[in-house]
Structures are given as C-alpha cells and as structure tokens.
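$ ./design --mode recover --in tokens.txt
reading tokens...
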C-alpha cells in the first residue's frame, strides 16, 4: 500500500519519529542503569548488614544465648525492606531467627559458605560466622524482599513516561516548526499551482523566499506563468473578436428572421407566420377533436383616417387597434396583421362554436369605443368575417378565402358587425346578437316574468313553498328558453340587473302570499355565478327583504356545486354572512358537480336538491336508485333536508316518500304557475288529486 501523505506530514513525522526514537532509547538505557544501581545498592546494604550481624553474633553462639541474639541483635537491623534473618549452627540447625515480612526460614534454606543469590522475589545473603581462631561456628542467612526495589523502579519508569510524553509533544512541535521552514516554499508553489488551475488566472506569481534549489524552481515556474499569461491574452483577444463577429451575425440572423415573420409596425405576426399558425391550429384541433376559428378583421373607414389625419395617425390607430385586440384574446390564440388595416385572429381548440360568437361580439363591442391617440380622438369600428374548421374548410387557403368572403359580407350589411361564412352559424350569431340587444330592454318592456313551481312536503302531503322560475316572452320571437338567454345574459353582464329584478319580483309575490294569510310559505330563488361573486350580495338581499317587510327565513337561495367549489374559502364567508341574516341555503342540481364531502361539511347549508337526471329513472335504473339513496343518506348524516327535482310519476313520489326524502317538485305536482294563480292552486291541492290525475291508486 502506497502512502499518499503530504510532504509536510512526511517531514513532521520523520523529524518527530527520529526524535522520539532517540529519546526512547535513552530512556531505556537510563531505566536499565537505574535498575542495576538499585540492585547493587540493595545487595551492598544486605551484605554489609550480614557481615556486621555475623561478627556480632559470635558471643551469643559461644554462650548459647539464642533468645538474646534474637531480641538484641537480629531484631534491631537497619534494613527497611521486608526481610527474615536466621543463624544456622553446625550442619544446618537453626540456632536463632527473626521474621520481619521475609517469610518462614526452614533448615532447607541452609547453605555452607559465603554466597549471594537473586531470585524473582528475594535477595539471599549467606555469611559465615567465624570465632577468634578463624573456625566457622555457624552461618548467618539474610533474606531481603525485592518488592521495594520494583516499586522504586515503577515510580522511576512512570516519571520517565511522563517526561517522554512531554518530550514527544515538544519534539512534535519542534518538528512542525522545522518542516514549515523547509516545506513552506514547496507549499507556496503547490498553492499557486492549484489557484492557477482553478481560476485560470495566469497573473499569479510564486513568492521567492530563498536562492536554493526551491527558489530556482519558483523562478522557473513564474517565468512559465508569464509566458502562458501572454499567450492567453493573445488568445482572449482573438476569441473576443470572434465572439463579437458571431454575436453580430446572430443578431443579424434574428433581425432577418423577425422581419420575415413579424410586422415592423405592430410587432404582430405577419402573413407568412400567420399561415404557419393556422396550419398548427388545424393540427391541434384535429388532434383534440375541437374547433379552430379564423377571424378576418378590417378596420372600417381606415382610408378616411389616413387621408384626413395623415399616415402617422393611421399608424397610431393600427398599433392601438392591435393592443386592444390582443387584450381580448387568450394566450394560446394568435393575432396577426396581414397588411394595411387587415388583421387575422386564430382561435385555438374551441369547444363550442357559441364561444366564437362571444369572442366576436366582444371585439365588435370594444371597437365601438373611441381611440385616444396622440392629438386626436378617433372613432373606428371593425368588420369581422368568421369561418370555422372543419365546417368551412380543411386547409389554410380554403379557410382564408372563407373568412375573407365572410368579412365582405359583414361590410355589405353595413359594417361595424360580423358575419359567419356558414349560413346556419350566421343565423345563430344573428339570433344571439338580437337576444343580447333585446334582453337589455326586456325588463322595461315587461317581457320578463316569473312562474312558481310548487314544492310539496312528502310527510304532510301539502305545498310548503315554491321555486321562482324566470320566463321571457319576446314580442316577436315568442317564448325564449332560459337555457338560451341566461348564458347570454351572463356573458354580457346583464345577469346582475336581471338577478336583482328576479329577487325583487319574487319577494313582492311572497309579500302578497303573506298578506293573504300564507305566512309559512318559503320561496326559492336561483343565484347565478356572477351574482354569487358580488361582494355586496347579502346587503342587496337584506335591502329587498326590508323593502317588502319579509322575514329572512321566507327566502331560500339556490346555488350550484360549481359556484361553491370555484373559491371555497370565499364561498364559505359569503354563505356565513347570509346565514347570519337568517336566509336558507340550498345546493341546486346536486350530484352533477364535483363537490367534496369534506367541503360540504364546512358549508352552512340547509338542503340538497337532487338533480332531475337521477329522478327520471329512480325506481327503474339500479345506478340512479343507488345514487339517489346515497345522496339522501349523506344529506341526513349532515342534517340537511332533501328536495327531489323533476318528479313526474306517482311511483317516483312513493319511492322518495318511502326512503325519507323531505320535499319534491316537478310536473307531477305542477308546472310553473303564474303568481296570480298560485294561491288558488295551493287551496285546491291534495295528494289524492295528484294520484288520481297520474292514474295511480
């Protein structure tokens, strides 16, 4: 395995390692010398004590005074270590002995002659005892423990170890300082190399701190950087010139592409790009099975503006017209200028052809407003020709010809209008346009009216209220379905005025009922999405109730699931304001929207109205039966009343009554009744008459 440490680490470890090895060897030598000195000192002390005791014990042996030698001589030695002393007489018999931690002395411990013996635990000293004539009369045996020697050696080694640690730290610090002095120039060279590599900054230089080999290497490295820097500057200058030319070329290409595809005056797509966009729109419509519309627009009397006010004002009018048109379109739609005062609009992925009529009417209506140009106020209307893919053509040429022909048709009928290439669509657009115009005066002309469809309590089999239904009888067109004129009223903004008229008229009728003694009848009125989003709706309703002196509980406001789910938090706030007034709230056409049960729990509601599509075959179709029963069960769990709409047979009546539905309404009970006949109907109503009329028992 290769060692990849840095030079600094290697120098530090090498210097520190040599120092520590030298110090360690010295400490080992000192430790051995210290140990030998301890042994020699212990041995010398023991031998001296043995000789002294041997000389002094002669009289005691000669006079056989064993007790006295033990107490007076052997027990009074200066030996500090644990020891035992014995005097052997003759051939090894123990004459006297003392034990001071040196263990028991046996006759087997006897040795003849002078000797010194070391073992693991003891120092054994044998000293002959001679009389005055030199005859050996005994042997003195001294046994001394080596434990104190080992303790001193251990303390000495511990002291040396601590000193060794201090010396190691000191040698490491000295090694670091020494290696820094040696390696710092090399590290400077390495650091500059990395910086140059990372930043490509060739103006960096290595500091030269010495004139040795490393200093010369630094000089050479700096010369190399200077050469590279000079060549880099030359290359950068060439690269910058190349990039400048490249940017100029790209900008020129973009300018050419823009000029080839966009109108210089209005910045809109020009004819060429418009044709490409139409092809793309046709592909999208074919893929998604939707419609695509091409609108050909021409500004009315634009030539007169140019001739009378000048081309500069004409150009301003074209730019203002393009901005106004752009503001009326979706992001996915295209507005293009073909040239002169001609524009084309491409509507992508249109779900319903009536949506095209809404857009075109909005365009024509907006161009009835004047333009505030630099120094002039200019009035300029627009004529629009409309064609639809795939009804009016399958390719770009066919559709452009159709849209152009339709535009001239609009010019022929008097300008400031629009025309469809297809006659049926044109008739539909004309009818829609007429309905929108006539709806504005329908209230004043008295053509709008309300009828009241009774609502029956199933448990009591009596009429407990009604739903107000809006009707329009046109003076020339006759009866117009709410399904036709309500969406037009919503798209034109007339729904606010009509909605307030409905509330006012319905409350006036409710006051008449109460004046005739029918105080407990409730009246349900539908709200449109536009009305429900009005911030002052609760205040407007309160004002009408006060006008007719009606209690709030008389009025029930019906809203759809989609109205609630559009902005849940705002819907909750609006409903809570109306509930605090005492109004009743019902969800109309329940089951056809996308409301969530978790949200329904949060809405302050009073009742759910099951949509007629589930009631039609409620006792025939298993799916409709299951859905209806599920709605009833859910409503009951939420403590809400259940109202079934569209009840047309007595079989449906019985089914709903058996399954805990609260109220019903539909043609079985009655169609919408004019206000003047409603009270008469209530007085003559009975479940038996309904059953008899429907042919049921």
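writing sequence...
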């Amino acid at each position: 395995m290769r060692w990849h440490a840095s030079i600094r680490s290697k120098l530090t470890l090498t210097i520190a390692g040599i120092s520590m090895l030298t110090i360690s060897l010295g400490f080992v030598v000192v430790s051995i010398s210290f140990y030998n000195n301890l042994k020699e000192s212990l041995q010398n002390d023991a031998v001296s004590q043995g000789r002294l005791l041997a000389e002094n014990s002669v009289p005691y042996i000669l006079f056989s005074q064993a007790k006295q030698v033990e107490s007076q001589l052997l027990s009074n030695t200066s030996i500090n270590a644990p020891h035992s002393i014995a005097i052997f007489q003759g051939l090894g018999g123990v004459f006297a002995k003392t034990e001071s931690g040196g263990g028991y002395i046996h006759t087997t411990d006897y040795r003849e002659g002078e000797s010194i013996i070391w073992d693991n635990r003891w120092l054994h000293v044998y000293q002959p005892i001679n009389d005055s004539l030199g005859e050996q009369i005994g042997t003195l045996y001294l046994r001394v423990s080596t434990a104190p020697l080992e303790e001193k050696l251990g303390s000495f080694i511990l002291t040396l170890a601590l000193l060794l640690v201090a010396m190691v730290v000191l040698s490491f610090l000295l090694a670091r300082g020494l290696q820094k002095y040696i390696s710092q120039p090399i590290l400077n060279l390495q650091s500059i190399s990395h910086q140059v590599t990372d930043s490509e900054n060739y103006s960096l230089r290595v500091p030269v701190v010495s004139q040795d080999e490393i200093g010369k290497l630094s000089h050479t490295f700096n010369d190399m950087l200077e050469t590279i820097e000079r060549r880099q500057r030359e290359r950068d200058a060439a690269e910058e010139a190349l990039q400048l030319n490249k940017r100029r070329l790209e900008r020129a290409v973009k300018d050419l592409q823009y000029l080839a595809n966009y109108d210089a005056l209005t910045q809109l797509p020009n004819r060429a790009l418009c044709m490409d966009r139409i092809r793309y729109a046709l592909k999208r419509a074919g893929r998604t099975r939707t419609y695509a519309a091409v609108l050909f627009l021409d500004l009315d009397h634009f030539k007169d503006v140019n001739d009378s006010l000048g081309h500069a004002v004409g150009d301003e009018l074209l730019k203002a017209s393009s901005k106004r048109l752009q503001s009326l379109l979706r992001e996915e739609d295209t507005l293009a200028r073909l040239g002169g005062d001609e524009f084309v609009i491409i509507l992508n992925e249109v779900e319903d052809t009536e949506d095209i009529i809404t857009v075109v009417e909005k365009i024509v209506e907006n161009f009835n407003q004047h333009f505030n140009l630099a120094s002039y106020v200019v009035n300029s209307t627009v004529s629009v020709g409309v064609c639809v893919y795939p009804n009016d053509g399958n390719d770009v040429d066919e559709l452009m010809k159709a849209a152009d022909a339709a535009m001239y048709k609009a010019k022929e009928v008097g300008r400031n209008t629009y025309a469809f290439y297809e006659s049926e669509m044109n008739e539909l657009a004309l009818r829609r346009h007429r309905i929108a115009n006539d709806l504005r005066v329908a209230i004043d002309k008295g053509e709008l009216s309300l009828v009241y469809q009774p609502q029956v309590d199933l448990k009591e089999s009596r009429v407990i209220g009604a739903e107000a239904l809006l009707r329009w009888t046109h003076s020339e067109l006759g009866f117009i379905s709410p399904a036709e004129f309500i969406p037009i009223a919503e798209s034109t903004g007339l729904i606010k005025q009509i909605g307030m008229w409905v509330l006012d008229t319905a409350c006036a009728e409710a006051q008449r009922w109460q004046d005739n003694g029918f105080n407990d009848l409730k009246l349900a009125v539908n709200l449109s999405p536009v009305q429900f989003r009005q911030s002052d709706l609760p205040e407007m309703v309160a004002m009408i109730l006060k006008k007719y002196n009606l209690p709030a509980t008389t009025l029930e406001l019906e809203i759809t699931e989609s109205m609630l789910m559009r902005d849940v938090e705002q819907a909750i706030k609006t409903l809570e304001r109306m509930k605090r007034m005492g109004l009743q709230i019902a969800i109309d056409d329940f089951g056809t929207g996308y409301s969530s049960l978790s949200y329904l729990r949060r809405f302050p509601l009073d009742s759910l109205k099951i949509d007629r599509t589930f009631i039609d075959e409620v006792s025939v179709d298993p799916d409709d039966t299951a859905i209806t029963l599920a709605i009833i069960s859910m409503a009951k769990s939420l403590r809400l009343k259940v109202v079934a709409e569209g009840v047309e047979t007595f079989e449906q009546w019985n089914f709903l009554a058996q399954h805990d539905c609260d109220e019903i309404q539909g043609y079985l009970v009655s169609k919408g009744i004019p206000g003047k006949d409603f009270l008469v109907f209530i007085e003559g109503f009975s479940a038996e008459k309904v059953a008899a009329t429907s042919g049921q028992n």
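exit 0
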